[in-house]
């Protein structure tokens, strides 16, 4: 217990020292997408750190086929997606955390709903853990430089407007 | 001595901090606090401490290929549903590793999965209290494009006692290779075919601690998998054989185990179809032969059933896969009736159908001499099912958006569950139930939505606990508030004093990636979905506060 508190205080000190040393450049907590190897729906291995959208905003949304609010969110965005893409060029990557109990349902579900999103499979929660996700749905917004600028852990009808407002902010900043 | 070591490493850490400042940190925290009351009706007892708390903080650090992380856990004491051997506060998970395009090495704790997980899956499902993480070393290689080799070596977490991890005695080691042929052969890449295949080997070692039997100390398991897809058709399967593995689960028999999983599907715009089959025989595979429940599992056997989310369908008669043997099938159809048609309405109508069933396997004992010394208990064949039903579920749901304001969803479930096998309650034999759910959503305006669910469950012949009803109202203010009230009632219980009501109110506030939820009331156990999040919760009566945050 004593050792543990020592360790914790050290880590804390380190952070504090760092935040002073940082200035305005790039904070430790300035989060970019961690590197995890995930498969897409055709079995290609994708390095998540290399996900990008040519300088335009990108949404990463964690979902599962058994998660009703997740499906609501992605189906709602699906109806708006054409307009969103026209206006901002935003791209959505939907990361399924379905494990093997439900993983075979992912592709048929996605196809039947005609989602145009890029789908990645995270059956053992590696990317979920690396991104600090507690529960689904959890949606992240990434700016053109690969920096995570906004995230939201929930879905209630109307949240898509909040998300899109943030997307618009990013495109207007340019 | 120990302190000076820590100080030295701290110094090193501090020196390294300038380097560290280049990297990035991410993580999350979760705290669940319960203040519980006595409630004789639902057999809930107030613990001596009155209050319980589980807390976790994860921190991951990454810097140009280098990675390290830890999780601190605290159970003071553990919330309901967790074994009481989870106690204290301390370091529950830590690792250091390095990753580039070729190698990915991790020393310390890690999670990994081979193929579908049937042969090896170490994973965390905190809500369910599952955490069979490895403690050891994992080395993954990607030597060629489309080829992934994974190796693991370590002991599995069994418990967390007095603030530190307790690992199983058994050692688990394994290797897995997977090839995506489309990335190998240009001809295949340009065709409509996709082919990938993989193979795994996993072995466990545990000392023979039995005085009566000669137990195999090393048990191997091996198998392969393949996926072939053509345009929008796919078929995949995995077959695993496990060598002699006498354990408490299988009654110390010396049979080999085998497991086969098959999935096939087709999809197009507006239509998705999946059929699955599973044949399992003697496939309980743990790093401790005496472990039970969710402890120390090496392989993961998925239940071939739909994961229901409506309270009554999800929580009362769920199915759990039977590692000692089962033959199971499932079919799923997702269909969208086109918008603008008579049946489809203005926005189209979503229809989903699902059927799943599981039977006992035939275990043929006629060729087996029970008195010989082999302790091979029976013969069995893949997909050779007995008449004994374990589970059957037919369900259909239809969802339709009527206009900008109203969305309706109606669902029906017919669930039969063999309680002699699953033993969820005291009732004998098969419990069959009809469940109906009406889900109505009304969007008041852009930000405010109200949703209600009316659910009923009727058991055939008023068996077990008889009839149930649930009524839920949920009010959400996007993006940051939700309010919900729920009452689940066992109004039709044949025993009058067991006609219990479970009222519950929940309020939640969301600040981006931070979420605070306060609930008060009686709660039945099961998969509980409220305010846009689903999680597994045990039964209780009292106050529950949960806080989650990501950074």
Automatic annotation (TrEMBL), chain A:
InterPro entries (UniProt xref): AhpC/TSA, Thioredoxin-like_sf, Thioredoxin_CS, Thioredoxin_domain, Thioredoxin_ResA/DsbE_sf
Listed SUPFAM superfamilies: Thioredoxin-like
Signal peptide extent: 1-21
Domain of life of the native organism: Bacteria
GO molecular function, one term: antioxidant activity
CDD domains: TlpA_like_family (cd02966)
Keywords: Redox-active center, Signal
Thioredoxin domain location: 27-174
Record-given protein name: TlpA family protein disulfide reductase
Species for this entry: Brumimicrobium aurantiacum
Automatic annotation (TrEMBL), chain B:
Signal peptide segment: 1-21
Record-linked InterPro entries: DUF6029
Keyword Signal: yes
Keywords from the UniProt entry: Signal
Pfam families for the chain: DUF6029
Domain of life: Bacteria
Protein's recorded name: DUF5723 domain-containing protein
Organism, scientific name: Brumimicrobium aurantiacum
Lineage: Bacteria, Pseudomonadati, Bacteroidota, Flavobacteriia, Flavobacteriales
């Amino acid at each position: 217990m004593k050792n543990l508190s020592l360790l914790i205080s050290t880590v804390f000190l380190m952070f504090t020292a760092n935040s002073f040393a940082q200035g305005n450049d790039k904070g430790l907590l300035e989060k970019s997408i961690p590197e995890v190897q995930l498969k897409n729906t055709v079995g290609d291995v994708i390095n998540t750190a290399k996900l990008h959208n040519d300088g335009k905003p990108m949404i990463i949304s964690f979902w599962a086929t058994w998660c009703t609010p997740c499906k609501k969110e992605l189906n709602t965005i699906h109806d708006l997606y054409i307009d969103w893409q026209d206006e901002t060029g935003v791209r959505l990557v939907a990361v399924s955390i379905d494990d093997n109990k439900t993983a075979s349902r992912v592709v048929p579900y996605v196809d039947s709903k005609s989602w145009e999103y890029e789908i990645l499979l995270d059956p053992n929660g590696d990317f979920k853990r690396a991104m600090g996700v507690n529960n689904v749905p959890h949606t992240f917004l990434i700016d053109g430089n690969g920096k995570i600028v906004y995230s939201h852990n929930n879905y209630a009808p109307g949240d898509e407007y909040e998300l899109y407002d943030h997307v618009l902010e990013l495109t207007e900043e340019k | 001595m120990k302190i000076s070591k820590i100080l030295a490493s701290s110094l090193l850490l501090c020196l390294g901090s300038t380097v560290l400042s280049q990297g990035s940190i991410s993580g999350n925290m979760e705290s669940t606090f319960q203040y519980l009351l006595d409630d004789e009706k639902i057999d809930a007892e107030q613990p001596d401490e009155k209050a319980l708390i589980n807390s976790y903080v994860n921190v991951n650090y990454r810097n140009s290929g280098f990675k390290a992380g830890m999780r601190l856990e605290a159970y003071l004491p553990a919330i309901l549903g967790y074994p009481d051997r989870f106690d204290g506060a301390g370091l529950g998970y830590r690792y250091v590793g390095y990753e580039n395009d070729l190698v990915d090495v991790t020393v310390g704790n890690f999670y990994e999965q081979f193929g579908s997980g049937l042969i090896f899956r170490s994973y965390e499902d905190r809500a369910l209290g599952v955490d069979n993480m490895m403690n050891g070393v994992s080395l993954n290689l990607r030597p060629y494009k489309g080829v992934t080799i994974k190796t693991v070596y370590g002991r599995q977490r069994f418990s967390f006692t007095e603030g530190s991890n307790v690992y199983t005695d058994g050692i688990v080691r394994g290797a897995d290779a997977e090839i995506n042929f489309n990335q190998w052969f240009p001809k295949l890449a340009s065709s409509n075919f996709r082919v990938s295949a993989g193979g795994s080997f996993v072995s466990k070692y545990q000392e023979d601690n039995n005085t009566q039997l000669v137990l195999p100390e090393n048990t191997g398991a091996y198998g392969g998998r393949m996926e072939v897809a053509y345009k929008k058709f796919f078929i995949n399967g995995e077959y695993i054989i496990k060598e002699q593995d006498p354990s408490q689960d299988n009654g110390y028999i010396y049979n080999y185990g085998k497991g086969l999983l098959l999935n096939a599907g087709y999809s197009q715009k507006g239509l998705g179809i999946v059929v699955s089959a599973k044949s399992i025989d003697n496939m309980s595979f743990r790093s401790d032969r005496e472990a039970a429940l969710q402890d120390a599992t090496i392989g993961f056997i998925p239940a071939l059933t739909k994961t229901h989310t409506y309270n009554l369908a999800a929580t009362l008669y769920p199915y759990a896969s039977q590692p000692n043997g089962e033959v199971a099938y499932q079919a799923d159809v997702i269909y969208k009736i086109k918008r603008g048609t008579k049946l489809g309405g203005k926005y189209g109508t979503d229809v989903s159908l699902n059927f799943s069933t599981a039977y006992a396997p035939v275990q043929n004992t006629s060729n087996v001499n029970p008195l010989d010394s082999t302790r091979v208990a029976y013969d069995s064949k893949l997909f050779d099912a007995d008449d004994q039903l374990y589970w059957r579920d037919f369900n259909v749901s239809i969802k339709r958006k009527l206009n900008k304001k109203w969305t309706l969803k109606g669902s029906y479930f017919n669930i039969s569950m063999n309680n002699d096998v699953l033993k969820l309650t005291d009732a004998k034999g098969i419990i069959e139930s009809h469940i109906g759910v009406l889900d109505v959503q009304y969007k008041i305006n852009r930000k405010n939505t109200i949703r209600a669910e009316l659910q009923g469950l009727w058991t055939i012949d008023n068996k077990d606990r008889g009839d149930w009803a649930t009524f839920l109202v949920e009010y959400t203010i996007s993006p940051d508030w939700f309010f919900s009230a729920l009452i689940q009632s066992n109004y039709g219980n044949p025993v009058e004093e067991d006609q219990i009501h479970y009222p519950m109110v929940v309020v939640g506030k969301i600040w981006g990636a931070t979420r605070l939820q306060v609930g008060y009331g009686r709660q039945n156990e099961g998969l509980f979905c409220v305010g846009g999040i689903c999680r597994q919760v045990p039964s209780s009566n009292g106050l529950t506060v949960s806080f989650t945050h990501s950074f």
